[in-house]
Amino acid sequence: FEQGEAVRHFFKKMAFVNIKTVKDFGNNDRVTFAQWP
Fold it and tell me: Distance (Å, rounded) from C-alpha 24 to C-alpha 27?
């Protein structure tokens, strides 16, 4: 659950768009979605 920032950075670096991270009930980053343009 401590990888959210790294995953978002990777998606941004690889030119993905609509990057969004959803948190779980413990307010931890749980899943990150991104869309290939």
Answer: 5
Q: Where are the alpha helices (DSSP H) in 1-37?
A: 4-13
Rounded Cα distance, 5 and 3, in Å? 6
Which pTM value belongs to this model?
Answer: 0.78
Q: How many domains, the chain?
A: 1
Contact partners, residue 2, CB within 8 Å, separation at least 6:
29
Provide φ and ψ at 20, rounded to 5°: -145, 135
- Residues 2-35 pLDDT 10s: 899 999 999 999 999 999 999 999 999 999 999 9
Give the domain range for residue 27.
Answer: 4-35
